[in-house]
Design a protein that fits this description.
alpha/beta; Rossmann fold; 15 helices; globular; 46% helix; 6-stranded parallel sheet
Length: 308
């Protein structure tokens, strides 16, 4: 019953945001929208030949194909109609500001870090998979900006240093078959495993048994995946882009590297693998960091913005 509703809260600006906006106008309801990424940019990268990174894309309204320009206008129209905009990072606040939205309407509420159950002892999990060598894991949607191909390219160098080595890439997406073919062409099937999409509890166990989690991404609004890895207790190497530096402080609770920089990625992985003391320091500090993103801290902020 729409009459009993005081406010409509849309969790994205397009698939949910567009109908929610029209309903709010039609029935004169308050309207708030959450922006967790730039839908126009993501579609542009995957389907419409966009090459610019998000920082550049968010400031340009020319030189793109018509479908991209339409999507940019649609998401801005939705955001213009909202009384408040919620974003999960300071980085995304800057991106939405680049759309021409007043910063006073954009509110940062970080994603809540849920408590991750203990996944078991690392040595016990290793016995289940019958592998005792070095394991590097990465996970996410298999899309161009996640840089999984670069991880595959440095595997031969890692194998030279650690003959018993495995790279696990978990996730599904449009790049799956390209990456799978790349592994076969480079004859790395023994060292690289593309698992496809895994159940959450299975993925958590893979992360727990791994020596380091690497997220080589060119874009991340605010990574829920990194929050989960921090909770599981695996050292993190990720890129100094997007919202990542709001979570990972270089050399304190993880290591930050440049996107697709093979030398930096290799050196960071080696640093974690070769120093148990430092890797455990990263894990302990990361779990302290998670306290800043507790539900007890985030929900009051949300209630205040929604004025419930």
């Amino acid at each position: 019953n729409i009459k009993g509703i005081d406010l409509i809260y849309a969790l994205d600006p397009v698939s949910v945001g567009v109908p929610a906006m029209f309903i709010s106008v039609l029935f004169r309801k308050r309207f708030v929208v959450r922006i967790a990424g730039d839908y126009a940019w993501e579609q542009g990268i995957q389907r419409f030949k966009v090459k610019d990174n998000l920082d550049v894309f968010s400031q340009k309204n020319v030189d793109y194909l018509l479908p991209v320009l339409v999507l940019k206008k649609v998401q801005k129209m939705v955001v213009d109609r909202a009384e408040n905009i919620i974003v999960p990072s300071e980085y995304l606040k800057r991106i939405v500001s680049n759309w021409g939205i007043s910063g006073g309407r954009i509110n940062v509420i970080h994603t809540v870090a849920e408590e991750i159950p203990f996944q078991g002892r690392k040595d016990g999990l290793r016995k289940m998979v019958k592998f005792n060598g070095r394991i590097v894991i990465s996970a996410g949607r298999l899309v161009p900006w996640k840089g999984f191909d670069t991880l595959i390219e440095i595997v031969p160098k890692l194998v030279k240093r650690y003959p018993s080595f495995k790279l696990i890439i978990s996730g599904d997406g449009p790049d799956f078959y390209r990456l799978d073919s790349m592994v076969s062409q480079k004859k790395l099937d023994q060292y690289v495993s593309l698992t496809g999409s895994l159940d959450r509890d299975v993925l958590f166990k893979y992360i727990r048994m791994s020596d380091v989690f690497v997220l080589n991404t060119n874009y991340e609004g605010f990574s829920h995946q990194l929050l989960e890895v921090m909770g599981i207790g695996t050292p993190i190497v990720t890129t100094n882009v997007g919202g990542n530096p709001e979570l990972i402080k270089n050399e304190k609770n993880g290591l930050l590297i440049k996107y697709n920089n093979k030398k930096q990625i290799f050196d960071a992985i080696v640093r974690v693998l070769d120093s148990e003391q430092e890797s455990q320091k990263f894990v302990r500090t990361a779990q302290e960091t998670l306290k800043k993103f507790s539900v007890e801290r985030m929900i009051p902020k949300l209630i205040d913005i929604l004025k419930l």
